[in-house]
Specification:
Low-confidence stretches: 7-33
Number of helices: 14
Largest sheet: 10 strands, mixed
Strand content: 5-15%
Helix content: 25-40%
Radius of gyration: 20 Å
Number of strands: 10
Distance between the termini: 26 Å
Order of helices and strands: EHHHHEHEHEHEEHHHEHEHEHEH
Oligomer: single chain
Structural class: alpha/beta
Strand order of the largest sheet: 3-2-1-4-5-10-9-6-7-8
Length: 351
Amino acid sequence: MNGETLTVSGPNRNCTSSSWEDAGKVGKPSTPTRKPQPPKPENAITIAVSSRVLFNMEREQQIYERQGMEEYLKYQVEHESEPFSPGPAFSFVKALEAVNTRLRDLYPQSEELFDVVLVTNNHAYVGLRLINTINHHRLFIERFCMTGGNSPIGYLKAYHTNLYLSADSTKVREALEEGIAAATMFTPEKMKEVSETQLRVAFDGDAVLFSDESERIFKAHGLDKFFEHEKAHENKPLDHGPLKGFLEALGKLQRKFFDKGLRMDCPIRTYLVTARSAASSGTRALKTLRSWGLEIDEALFLAGAPKGPMLEKIRPHIFFDDQMFHVEGAAELGTVACHVPYGIAQKVAKK
């Protein structure tokens, strides 16, 4: 149950949005009626989220770390009628549900939808509080995986997981080693308000959408050699990175809206936010996406400038980067940022 913390933020700090102010109030568990049926896992785009990124469980985590498992379970049972307040993944999950609502209106019989699975190594004793919380916030989450202290990673493939989000970097690394798109999610001190009707997802390029091939050249030989390498290989597509498949899944759903003439009213928008320079190394990135048959709605080539201010304008529900200083810079300005521990940058950071 270990997790990650940032100097600018701890996991699952209290959220500040006024719409969440009543989240911690004691109330009788409520069960929403007329929930839509979840799609079959093999047809859905499955997002697995840990309980500690979907909800604020900071206090409970402190009890576990300081007093042990038995006191932790006792506390959870005693407070199971009190819903958790939202965590950093909450707005992302709500945006997924908003997309599903639009898709069900356009394609009533289709099961090509987002499906959120709550994946946690919590004991089943905690399950009642999690269920009560999900019903309190009217979330459509029907699939749970509670492993009672064991790692849940082995179940991700069985759930056909397209993306796994956790506060635990060790589990994220395990998932990546299994070939599953995964990232460690952090909570900014004060999260920016985000759209309730359009899902916005921002990606770094190298070692996130793409492999770390070019980044290795830069780390080993410097910027000039990197530019030379990219110019010489601009017509050779980069190999895929760990989140290419998730962008692919988003694009698949986007096309369902495009096919209905809704390109300009699509509830999914994607962004490439990269430190690459447009003229010097942007060509290869764009040609790689084209070779994969993937579209990106907006591409921002920052030529080494900080990403935080641009992300503050975009206001994505989620941003993925392989380098912690970009994650920290985004979080400082209110963006929910996720670290993808993949590629050469991780080895350099460890050194």
